[in-house]
Amino acid sequence: QYFVCTSQISEHCVTNCKRVIYARQCNSTRSRVYGDTQSRDAHLIWNRNTATSMQMPLFTLPYFAGGRNGAKGETQASDDDVSSEVLSHYSSTSETASVPEEVNDTVNEQMAQEEAENKLKECIDNTMHKSAKTRQNALESLKLAFSSKILSEFLVERRLTLTDCLERCLKKGKSEEQALAAVVATLLCIQLGSSKEAEDVFQALKSILINILTDKSASLAARHNCATALGTCCYVAANEEEDLASCLTCLESVFSASYIKGDGSVPSHNSQTQILHCNALQSWSLLVTICPPSKIQKFLENHMPKLPGLLCSDNVSLRIAAGETIALLFELARRADQDYFYEDTGQLCETLKALATDGNKHRAKNDRRKQRSIFRDVLHSIEDEECPEETVKFGIECLYIDSWVR
Fold first, then answer.
1. How far apart are CA 66 and CA 60, in angstroms?
2. For helices 105-126 and 159-172, what crossing angle results, to 10°?
């Protein structure tokens, strides 16, 4: 399951060295104003097995955001220019950091905050630009910004504008633009948290996400991200049981296409379609954890007879997602009924043991290692009714995991 935590990142913010020379010449102050070290909160979106942190200093945003909105005849910087300017910035940071400093924290923090907000406003404006490339660059910059720092206060004031921009990108954009817009929508809901503002964003985008996800003519890249966005946004922002039920039904209709058919034949899908089914299954599993206990029995009846069939998939990610979902449903079932019994437990455990000791040379080495580790935990949970324990460290903070549900 996904966990949203915060971590501290330190970063030097550099001002013009001429201020140092000027201050010393005028003898107006003995302090040398050239830099500041400030703390920034960064979002990290954790999956139970893999953890990814997307962090990028906000001063690099202009190099990814494209040209200014409405300016004619202005061209974007080349990749070489971008790299040169970024490297130059880091170089000047390194050179000035060696000088002793006394910093006016309040002034520098305010300047950095204003600069960052101005760049974000420009990125939001650029999501409405006529150029598809500029819109994509703006969405990429927003993705990096939203995953690097807590911006909830800034975003609350601009949520309506940003929601309209994302809605337009999802409706009228092409494959890459739709995929990026889905990621930004996910991060926006996470930034706003479980609030009325986040619910408004979710309600505005839900139907569009569902349409793209279920549209077989849409690009698979966009459908992949819409599957994740639908599950995460619903998990964070949905307050109505009807919204939860509709999202579960939509996601179920996607991944159930990988179930073994009634005549016993195994569906054949390409690798990208299998990734789509994997994302849909993971999002469905996430939403199952917030369903009322009265719904669990129906999930068990509908999916426990079919999920073990996915353990034979030739896609390692889909096999692992199926195994984790089975462990999750077992845990939920035992919480509802301590005497829960699954008729085919013996056969299921045999399959899990084979996957936990898989030595098939036709599979990639990393895939075999990852699969064995996960299925040992799944098997242990089902046989011994004990969930694996794991501690993930974020600097001075720790996340303790001892359940498939939480």
1. 12
2. 30
**Average pLDDT of the chain, as a whole number:** 78
Q: Is the pTM of this model over 0.90?
A: no
| Burial class (CB within 10 angstroms; exposed 0-12, middle 13-18, buried 19+) of 367 | middle
Q: What is the pLDDT of residue 264?
A: 80
**Residue 97 near residue 35, CB atoms below 8 Å:** yes
Of 16 and 113, the one with more pLDDT? 113
What is the C-alpha to C-alpha distance for residues 335 and 344, in angstroms, rounded to an integer?
A: 19
For the stretch 164-205, pLDDT in tens is 999 999 999 999 999 999 999 999 999 999 999 999 999 999
